[in-house]
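Quick one, probably user error.
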């Protein structure tokens, strides 16, 4: 059948109705890690870039979060551009907004094919496929699957043979005969789309977002580019819901090709946003060797684990421009680290931060309070004592949130801390008043939020810490970012007297 060229729009929905994770006493959201900045939706951009490279269809992208797009403005955009296919990227905690975008599209253009991709269909394929206003979903990695879907739609052909692409009807036989794919979380029980060779994927086309400026309060410029050098995480931390467990690396050559392309576009700062960047010492050294071979000295940082840190690899990275590492510390006791299955000890954590301090690498400690092994206020405060003693340059302190498809959540259901089926009900009928569960067996949520406030104040308002940060500030942008961050911190905390 002859193919017709069509117009395809991918949307990162507004974040106006995100699930409340840590409500304060007034019902609003308390300070969380996402208050530290916004990042480009790389998953959706990978999908659209692949479609653009492999076909001649017209490709459009709308990041409603970065552009602060309201629903009336989005309606005008859709009315003006009249896409034939709309792809909506999604997270379960943002499902209300994803569904609202789909409803809006169908109101304006009833004949437009609306497809949901992203994290949510991986977590809840059955419920996602049955949602109103969605004609299809993509379960898994969408580059190849979505391109094949669009090609079938352009030719007027059936698309239900595509691995990972489902409708309300086509998913039913797979639900009746569930499978186990060890590359994904065990709950992904339908055949999912998967990319074996991520090096074969085209480099993200940032022309879709170059008019936008992404930054956060830990950065130094207004031109931040995020890069994925790998996919997946093989670790099994009990609280983590990263859906893809198989780990695939890109070559250092491919990664630095992307860096060079970003530099040509004017980007000045780089964040490696992998689920796990520093899986081995060799990976870091290979990247640095390639940067040096091309004569590139960039400002970069990454998210990583302490158990794979070595002084030699970090010294090499520092010489090639590494500015900062965000470590998932999570808690301050060996018992807690063992229960969380972090694969490390408090001694190794201290050593990693000592190495970074000696080398002049800034550190971020991601921390969680309200864990099931913290049975009293004193237990939480002892964990915070460890954080203060660690003395990182920044700390992001969360109250534990019990997300589905994690071992922690299953344990909470088994102990009666969480009622079973809540997330399935929400996924079938997303509601704005849904609130994430917390481990409140020993400490109730108001107490935990008060302890979060206590931890932030104790960490950030130390005179020595304030003086050190004034000395370390390198630019006006960084200074303004820090002032903005303190403003958020004070404003959020002062709502709790």
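Nope, works fine. Designed sequence:
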């Amino acid at each position: 059948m002859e193919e017709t060229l069509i117009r395809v729009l991918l949307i990162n929905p507004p974040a106006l109705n995100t699930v409340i994770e840590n409500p304060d006493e007034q019902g609003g959201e308390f300070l969380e890690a996402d208050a530290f900045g916004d990042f480009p939706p790389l998953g959706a951009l990978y999908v659209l870039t692949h479609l653009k490279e492999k076909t001649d269809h017209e490709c459009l992208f709308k990041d409603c979060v970065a552009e602060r797009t309201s629903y009336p403005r989005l309606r005008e955009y859709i009315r003006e551009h009249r896409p034939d296919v709309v792809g909506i990227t999604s997270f379960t905690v943002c499902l209300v907004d994803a569904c609202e975008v789909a409803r809006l599209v169908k109101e304006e253009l009833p004949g437009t094919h609306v497809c949901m991709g992203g994290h949510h269909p991986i977590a809840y394929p059955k419920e996602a496929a049955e949602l109103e206003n969605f004609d299809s979903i993509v379960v898994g990695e969408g580059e190849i699957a979505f391109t094949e879907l669009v090609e079938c739609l352009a030719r007027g052909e059936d698309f239900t043979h595509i691995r990972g692409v489902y409708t309300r009807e086509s998913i039913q036989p797979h639900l009746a005969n569930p499978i186990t794919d060890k590359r994904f979380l065990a709950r992904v029980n339908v055949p999912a789309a998967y990319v074996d060779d991520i090096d074969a994927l085209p480099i993200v086309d940032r022309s879709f977002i170059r008019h936008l400026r992404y930054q956060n309060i830990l950065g130094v410029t207004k031109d931040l580019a995020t890069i994925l050098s790998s996919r997946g995480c093989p670790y099994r931390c009990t609280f983590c819901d990263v859906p893809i467990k198989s780990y695939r690396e890109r070559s250092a050559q491919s990664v630095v090709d992307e860096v060079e392309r970003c530099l040509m576009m004017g980007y000045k700062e780089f964040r490696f946003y992998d689920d796990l960047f520093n899986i081995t010492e060799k990976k870091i050294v290979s990247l640095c060797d390639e940067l040096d071979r091309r004569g590139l000295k960039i400002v970069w940082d990454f998210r990583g684990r302490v158990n794979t840190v070595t002084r030699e690899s970090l010294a090499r990275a520092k010489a090639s421009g590494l500015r900062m590492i965000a470590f998932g510390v999570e808690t301050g006791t060996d018992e807690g680290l063992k229960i969380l299955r972090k694969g490390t000890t408090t001694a190794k954590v201290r050593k990693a931060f000592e190495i970074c301090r000696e080398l002049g690498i800034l550190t971020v400690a991601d921390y969680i309070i309200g864990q099931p092994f913290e049975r009293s206020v004193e237990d939480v405060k002892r964990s915070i004592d460890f954080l203060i003693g660690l003395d990182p340059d920044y700390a992001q302190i969360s109250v534990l949130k019990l997300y589905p498809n994690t071992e922690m959540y299953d344990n909470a259901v088994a102990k009666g801390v969480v009622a079973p089926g809540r997330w399935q009900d929400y996924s079938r009928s997303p509601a704005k008043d849904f609130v994430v569960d917390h481990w409140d067996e020993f400490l109730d949520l108001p107490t935990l939020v008060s302890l979060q406030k206590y931890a932030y104040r104790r960490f950030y308002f130390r005179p020595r810490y304030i003086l050190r940060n004034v000395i370390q500030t390198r630019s006006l942008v960084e200074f303004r970012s820090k002032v903005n961050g303190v403003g958020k911190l004070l404003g959020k905390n002062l709502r709790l007297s």
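The first helix runs from residue 42 to 54.
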